[in-house]
Amino acid sequence: MNVQVLTKDSVTVSVDAVVYYRVSNATVSVANVENAHHSTRLLAQTTLRNILGTKDLHEILGDRETISGSMQVIHVHNRFSFFSMVDVVHPHS
Fold it and tell me: Which is the CATH superfamily of the domain at 2-89?
């Protein structure tokens, strides 16, 4: 997925990320959510924007592994099994 994020220092970056997830309770997933895949994707995008929006561009570029790790910890009780930021593209001057 590709997400546009506004950083703490007001720089818009494009983030490519991969989310792997496993539904732990299929019945609840089908009964409570109209489109579980779409909902999981939106949750991942929102969480990514929330975390990256609190960081400066240099923090994002330097701490990709740490940020990916924090995403995994945050959503251990939701559906995310693994989250990885693949690439961060900053705008050209």
Answer: Band 7 domain (3.30.479.30)
